[in-house]
Amino acid sequence: MVRIREMGEADIDAVAALRVRGWRSAYAGIIPQAFLDRMSAENDAQQRRAGFASSRGKVVDLVAVDEDDVPVGWVCFGPYRGETDAMDAGEVYALYVEPTLMGRGIGRALLDDVHRHASARRFATLQLWVLRDNSRARKFYAGAGYAADGAVESDMYGDTAVTELRYRRSMP
């Protein structure tokens, strides 16, 4: 059984390692392997630490922790970062679960907690970007009430263009 709590600065190293494992697992065969191999939990932790304190109050980081209080899942959300006229649009920036624990409801518990926080912040919608070729994530988000809204972006990883689709969910 996992418990969800706000992420603290002491969780940054564990979350960075979790994020790198998550990328390597979820994006194998989608993002070039050379990019995934170059990822480093240490570099990710440095970047996360640099922005953690300054984003407090605007961005919410939640962790799912096991019985030993070790992060096994992480989600980050806040105001929508793209262009929109809506001041009440939120965005799920990232959600990762320990790859060996996927399918056990950890991601769903994290996302349910995001929905509670988003409602409290009076977000009318939540948006997120998901890789077009990440069928597992697309199915997960569709099961949580999100649907592709037609917006598409591409990011370059070396010589490889990777397409992302924007998903949206109205909040009750």
Structure commentary:
- This protein is globular.
- β4, α4 and β5 form a beta-alpha-beta unit.
- The chain has 5 helices and 7 strands, in the order βαααβββαβαββ.
- Helices cover 35% and strands 33% of the residues.
- With 172 residues, it is of the alpha+beta class.
- The model has no long low-confidence stretch (mean pLDDT 94).
- α1 (12-26) crosses α3 (41-55).
Radius of gyration: 16 Å
- Please report the total strand number as a whole number: 7
The CATH architecture classification is 3-Layer(aba) Sandwich
The largest pleated sheet is described as: 7 strands, mixed
**Structural domains: how many:** 1
Q: Give the helix proportion (percent range).
A: 25-40%
The outline comes out as globular
- Approximate strand percentage: 25-35%
CATH homology superfamily name: Gcn5-related N-acetyltransferase (GNAT)
Mean pLDDT: 94
**Distance between termini?**
28 Å
What CATH first level would be assigned? Alpha Beta
Quick rundown:
By secondary structure, the chain is an alpha+beta fold.
Search tags:
172 residues; 7-stranded mixed β-sheet; 5 helices; 7 strands; 35% helix; globular
Question: Could you outline the blueprint of secondary structure elements for this entry?
Answer:
Layout: E1 3-6, H1 12-26, H2 33-38, H3 41-55, E2 60-65, E3 71-79, E4 89-97, H4 106-120, E5 125-131, H5 135-143, E6 147-157, E7 160-170
Parallel strand pairs: 4-5
Antiparallel strand pairs: 1-2, 2-3, 3-4, 5-7, 6-7
